[in-house]
């Protein structure tokens, strides 16, 4: 894990996120804390990750999400060499949908 992001301020942010009870509360909080573009960028990366896990091509992903090949490549690097955070969340989401 990246020790540079482990700060008291980041801890407070994550505690705030973990206190949210449902999707509506997430909308309320994230609309306040993020700009529209920041939120759309985060959601775009998440969609890119899902599509990469579904073995979509860079071209398919770029066309559907509007993500640049640089963004797709960065997300792909995180999927392959990161902390497995995407996979953890995808697994939990799949369990909830079953």
UniProtKB/TrEMBL annotation:
Transmembrane segments: none annotated. It comes from the Bacteria. It holds the Pfam family Trp_repressor. GO terms for molecular function: DNA-binding transcription factor activity; sequence-specific DNA binding. InterPro entries: Trp_repress, Trp_repressor/repl_initiator, TrpR-like_sf, YecD_YerC. This is TrpR-related protein YerC/YecD. It comes from Anaerobium acetethylicum.
């Amino acid at each position: 894990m990246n020790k540079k992001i482990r700060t008291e301020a980041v801890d407070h942010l994550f505690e705030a996120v973990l206190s949210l009870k449902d999707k509506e509360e997430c909308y309320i909080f994230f609309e306040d804390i993020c700009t529209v573009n920041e939120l759309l960028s985060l959601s775009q990366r998440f969609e890119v990750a899902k599509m990469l896990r579904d073995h979509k091509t860079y071209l398919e992903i770029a066309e559907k999400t509007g993500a640049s090949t640089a963004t797709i490549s960065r997300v792909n690097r995180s999927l392959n060499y990161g902390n497995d955070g995407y996979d953890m969340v995808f697994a939990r989401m799949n369990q909830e949908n079953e």
